Amino acid sequence: MPPNNDNPLESVLPQEVENTGTESEAAFSHDVAPTIETFEHDPQSAGATAIAEISAEADAVTAEAESALAEIPASLGSTEEEVGQVESETGLMAKLRGIGEQVAGVASDARVKIGELVSHISGKMGDAVGALATGAIIGLGASTPNVEKLEAPLVPEVTAQARGPESETERKNRENLERQEKRDAWHEAHGVQKSLNTLRSYHAEHSFGKKAHTSSEEAEKALNNIDAMIESYPEELRKDILDDDQFTDALTGLNSLRGININADKPGQGGEIAKNIGKAIEISHRAIERMHSDMIHSAEEKLRGGDAHGLAQMADLYDEHIENTAMLSEGNDDPGYARSVVGIADETLSKFSHLLEEDSRGKDPSLTRGKTRLLEFLARAGEPKGVELLTQKIKSGEISVEELGSVFNDIEMGQVGVSSLNIVDVSDPRHARIGKGGEALASSLLSAYGLAPEEYLKYWKSPDAPKYFNPAEFNTKALVHLEERMPGGMKRLTESAGIRHPGRYPIELLEKQLKTKKGANLKYGGTISGLDDGNGAFVGPKRIEDLYEQARAQGLELRVAEAGSRLEVAKRLDEMVLQNGGKMSFLGIRGHGSPKGTTMAAGPDGLIDADFLGVPSDPENPDRSSLLLLDGAPIYFESCSTGAEDGIAQDLSEITPSPRRVTGPDIPTSIEELALVKGADGKFSFNIKYAAGQAKTYYRGKEVESSLPPKAFDLRYQGKRDK
Amino acid sequence: MKLHRRELRSNSYFCTISLMSQASEPLSPEEAIRQINAILKEARERISILHAEQDKVFEEYRKRLTALRVERITKQLNAPKQ
Asked: What is the ipTM score, two decimals?
């Protein structure tokens, strides 16, 4: 969604948007600094100082770019995914590289000219070298000189003599340079960069609601030009096509046009824009198809040379292409592109697997980003070889599971046909694999840790959850972290506390829970959570993390359990009391709810109601709640509508023989903020703010006021909450 | 690892200087310093322009990231109910 003036979020956004400078801006007021006035009679020193100064200034511009690259996303709290998206859509790195090269070029040219002058004055070459050397030292590693313009007049024999015999590396470098020059010349002749810039402007203007200066006709012309470029791409340049930045830029640039989708329904524009998006995807699709074998060959050559970057480039291109194609298919109802690109991806996958096997036998199995990216791509597409390799590398600690976020992005477990990639043709088995990679990896890791995947995966389905609330991703990451710290920990947690969703809790808490000795006489509060979570409302650890911090600040520990049925809730809570050697100071009940109860999991025994905790279930133990909770210990529901009139919270407070406060929301909502408060009598109570509706607290069946006024709503939570 | 063209050419740099210096007439110190200052001024102006261009790139970068952030926060605010 683009920002607009009506957006209530504007108030929580940082206000520095208009300030585009950074800390070092003061050094660059864009006024030209004074020139050298000292060293009147000493050109050599003047030259050295001038070289040092200009070099330092050039380096500072580059350094500023480097720091801004890190500072801007950090100041906005941007995710890696967002940074990646903006980088690829704007061609940011290419633009910065271009500017950086120009700045370095300016400094280099100045160095050459100044060096030349100094040598003229003294008539000796030594002074020029001396000035340059001094300048380089003062300039702290100034950019390497650019002598492009000066090289032409060189007499070949003299150059060769000065360089000495050409080594193998020098020969390769020279050949690379020659090919690069050919590519540059060819692109220049075909106006590729100009066309790309037109498309970038078109994309930016139409995606972000700017005034459009680039017409659809211009965009179409640029598209045609790039199409012609791809069509006539010279045979001799194909050998290292993956090194052709402009070609790969063209493909990603074409792909990035999909962003215009968001405005494609604007009156008068939709048709033309949609037509151009369609055309762009079609061109990039054809280009990939046409250049596919060259790309594979190029990647293969690079890998043989110990460089896995080519594989990353391939993976990036395909990933983007598959995603965009699916997106376009969704809008245009044309399955042709997606089906075809899946076919290409299939072929690439088998080729990549083969290359990986080769590489694993080699002497240098070092993990480059390229390989990680490739493994991710393989796993994402559900390729068994990729899943297996990833599992090994994650288990051995060679790859961090954090690096694999996007593996899980398209997970749609049990929902084949819903995922954006599966909409096209679910009957095609190749297609169905795409988007199932997250499930395959999660399953593989569970097995690797000695767990039965089906016991977990059936609860990790949140078909209605947004992308950011994917239980499989959170749970898999937590599983790996827990197992790294406590091998076998997940199995013990499941056996002792029924936990199937480790991603809902801080790892430190789970670790402490496992280390607690039986009958520890602990002061603690507890939560019991349902296993099913259809819309991802309980995904992520933030809520429990917050409660855990508050409990610890009040001198309490927190213990957690999960259950899928009424019977299991009873069992887990009993075990919690036995294990910790004492009753709880509070209890949280977490699960999808209604006024009459909370559903722990699907099935006839999945609902718990007021009777379960409140009435005698055993003649010898008349009040279950008093067996579990200390006198007056409160209960809160993180469960929709449980605080409604005549609902479970009210009923529970009424039929519980030992009186206690019970709090729940009166409508469907989620907890916005929760405060655990300790009263003067040492007893605890909760102040809860739900995202909508009211928190209703009942005592002996009557609604009561909270013990303290609600804490001021803290805006920080809006940015930090993960649900 | 691919060498950048500038790195590749740096070997020939000092040879170039040498050849050019041999082919030219000496200058007076005053004239040399005047020319050094002129070169310095021009280089600073060009770097200044490029620096402003770089700022524009980052301005766009910041705006785009901000737009995505708004989108993300909106999604968080519309997070599923329990």
From this structure: 0.72
- Gyration radius of chain B's alpha carbons: 26
Six-digit token string for A75: 């100041």
Residues A572, A591: Cα–Cα separation, whole Å: 15
Which DSSP helix (H) or strand (E) runs through B43? helix B29-77
In terms of domains, do A532 and A645 share one? Answer: yes
Joined together, the tokens standing for residue A62 give: 């580059």
Residue A320 and residue A373 in contact, taking contact as beta carbons nearer than 8 Å: no
- Type and span of the H or E element at A593: strand A592-594
Residues composing chain A: 723
Q: How far is CA A305 from the centre of its chain?
A: 30
Q: Of A24, A25, A30, which to mutate for an interface test with B (greatest number of B Cβ within 10 Å)?
A: A30
CA distance A313 to A299: 8
Q: What is the pLDDT of residues A314-349, one digit of tens each?
A: 776 766 666 555 554 444 434 455 556 556 666 666
Structure tokens at A717: 């939570």
Asked whether the predicted pLDDT for residue A632 surpasses 50, the reply is: yes
Tokens for A244? 């052709």
Task: Assess whether pLDDT exceeds 90 at residue A170.
Answer: no
For the record, the structure tokens of A135 come out as 């300048």
Q: What are the backbone dihedrals phi and psi of residue A171, each rounded to the nearest 5 degrees, phi first? A: -65, -45
H or E element in which residue A42 lies:
none
Range of the domain at A32: 25-149
Helix (H), strand (E) at residue A530: strand A524-530
Residues of A in contact with B80 (CB under 8 A): 464-466, 469, 535-537, 670, 723
Q: Chain A: residue nearest B78 by CA?
A: A723
Torsion of CA A565, A569, A574, A580, to 10 degrees: 130
Distance from CA of B29 to the nearest CA of A (A): 6
pLDDT at A21: 38
Do the Cβ atoms of B20 and A150 come within 8 Å?
yes
The torsion angles phi and psi of A475, rounded to 5 degrees, stand at: -70, -40
Q: How many domains does chain A have?
A: 3
pLDDT category of residue A242 using cuts at 50, 70 and 90: confident
What's residue A276's pLDDT?
A: 72
First to last CA, chain A: 18
Residue A702 has pLDDT above 80, yes or no: yes
H helices of A40-143, in order, are 43-76, 80-90, 92-122, 125-138
**Contact status, residue A597 vs residue A610, Cβ threshold 8 Å:** yes
Report the candidate in A320, A297, A323 with the shortest Cα–Cα distance to residue A310.
Answer: A297
The reported pLDDT for the residue numbered A146 is 32
- A243 and A98 both lie in a single domain: no
CB A673 within 8 A of CB A706: no
What's the pLDDT score for residue A245? 75
C-alpha to C-alpha distance for B55 and A68, rounded to whole angstroms: 9
Identify the residue whose tokens are 């590396």: A169
CATH number of A539's domain? 3.40.50
Position A483 in a domain:
no
What's the pTM value of the predicted model, to 2 decimals? 0.55
Q: Note which residues in 23-82 of chain B have CB less than 8 A from chain A.
A: 24-30, 32-33, 35-48, 50-77, 79-82
What is the SS3 assignment for A163?
A: helix
State the nearest Cα–Cα gap between A618 and chain B, in angstroms: 32
**HSE-CB of A253 using CA atoms within 13 angstroms:** 26
- % of chain A residues with pLDDT over 70: 62
**Distance between CA atoms of A151 and A589, rounded to whole angstroms?**
77
Statement to judge: residues A666 and A522 lie in one domain: yes
Inter-chain Cβ pairs, chain A and chain B, closer than 8 A: 291
A89 shares a domain with A228? no
- How high does pLDDT run on average in chain A? 72
Let me know if residue A242 belongs to a domain: yes
Mean pLDDT, residues A97-115: 82
